[in-house]
Description:
With 162 residues, the protein is of the alpha+beta class. Helix content is 25%, strand content 23%. It has one domain: Cytidine Deaminase, domain 2, CATH 3.40.140. β2 and β3 form a beta hairpin. Tetrahydrodeoxyuridine (THU) binds next to β2 and α2.
Amino acid sequence: MIQHSLNIAYKEYSSPDELNDSTRLLLSKAWEACKSAYAPYSKFNVGAALELETGLIVTGNNQENAAYPSGLCAERVAVFNAASNYPGIAILNIAVVARTEPFGLQHPVTPCGACRQVLAEYENLSGKPISIWMQGSYGLVWMVNGMNNLLPLMFQGEKLKK
Ligand code: THU
C-alpha cells in the first residue's frame, strides 16, 4: 500500500479593497448578475462573471425550475454562455457570489462538484489556469488559482479513449 496525499492552496483577502481594479470589477459584475437569479425555490441567489482572455466579461446566474433537477447553477450558466457564444476563447477568471435571506453568508460560496468538473474541462481545453474568486456577504474573498486546487484527480475525457 502506498499512502498519497495532495495539497490544495487558496488565498484569503479580508476585503475586496485588497484586490486590483479588474478583479473588483469582475466581482461587481457577479453581484449584478446575482440580482437577476431565478431562485424562487431555494431563495439562494448566485451570480457568476467570467473574464475571457480577450477581456470580455460574460455573466450568468442560477436558474431554478419546479422540476428541481432541471435547474442550473450560476457558474455553468455563465460558462456555457461563454463557450457557446465565444468558443475556443480561454476563461482566465471567474467570480462567484451568493446572497440568501434571511441570513448572511459568513464565508464565500465555493462551486459545486458538477460546476468544478465543467470549469476544469474548459481549463484543460485552453491550457490556461482559471482563477476562481469567491465572495461571501461580508467582504471576505477567497481565490483559488487553477482547477487542480478545487478538483484534484478530476475525471478526464482521455479516459473515454482506448
Ligand atoms: N448554486 C449555484 O448556482 N452555484 C453553486 O456553486 C452552488 C449552488 C445554486 C443551485 C441552486 O439554484 C441553489 O444555488 C441552491 O443550491
